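anyone seen this seq b4? input:
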Amino acid sequence: MRGTGPGRTGPRLVAVGSATPPTSYTQQELLEIFRVEDPRIRSLFLNGGIQRRYLTLPPELPDGTRLAETQGDLLAKHLASGVSIGTEAVQKCLKEARADVGDIGYLCCVSSTGFLTPGFSALLVKELGIPVTCSRLDVVGMGCNAGLNALAAVSGWATANPGRLAVMVCVEVCSAAYVFDGTMRTSVVNSLFGDGAAALALTSGGDTGPEITGFASRIIPEAVDAMRYDWDERHGRFSFFLDQDIPYVVGAHAERAVGRLLAQAGLRRSDIDHWVIHSGGKKVIDAVRINLGLTRHDTRHTTDVLRDCGNLSSGAFLFSYQRLLEEAVVAPGDNGVLMTMGPGSTIETALLRW
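predicted toks r here
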């Protein structure tokens, strides 16, 4: 396993891996499949900075329409697809880390697109053959920000267990959490989210990958209802709600959230070389970029992930982080900021040092 040699003792990100379902659709194809004619809804799909999303759609019926899935159908989809893409993401991550499943000492699974007991951590232990002595954590229902909340917990374990491997995997099957009723409320959600899983391997005491040097959080209690699940009695399932003012709420608080993170390390925004921000939507990204004084180049991976995959919820920032690494532009001494936003309303941040 890489990353267990001499070096700094802080937790380090040693590898990342991602996976999506096998089927993907352009926004135009989705409008045609679901026979959407309302010009307002079509505009949502076609003008949100998204070209394609990976989804597991309902089965097609003989008349060309799609099956009206029950909440039970959606939970079954969440389970089956989640285990599949979660397994693939972990396997790719381990391969990149040059590690085996037997090396995993801690597994944290993150998801908000369904409720399972036992959770994904137990299911992946069985599916992958992870040691039964592995410590586990499931972070459920925290939303798009949850990847960094979980990373803080995983980092704590890695710090307390130097040389041992911890793995975090975000598993989001957003096509298992929807209501399709032709309203603008549900159409905003239906036009935005995609399915995907991303895994991150950490260890401390090594010299591979960037070191996590700090975390900072900011919750906005006055916007607690701005992103939430409601129970839809008419459709018999959960329905996610996004307030139209979310971009402005997040944007208005972004500077203070990042400022606290940097102040803890004695840094300024000009000291940050790389920005990895949650692909929350075109307006959200623009609001954060403007309020932090970032360039479009700074948010290139964030906008590219949105374009190619949609909003992948808790794992979206790891898809962007993976693209940053593949770009091969980071250098020793560089600083990076990870930033996610979600229900609460919440802004989570982490600081990296290469």
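The two ends are 19 Å apart (CA to CA). Residues 11-204 form a domain with the Peroxisomal Thiolase; Chain A, domain 1 fold (CATH 3.40.47.10). kinda curious what u guys think
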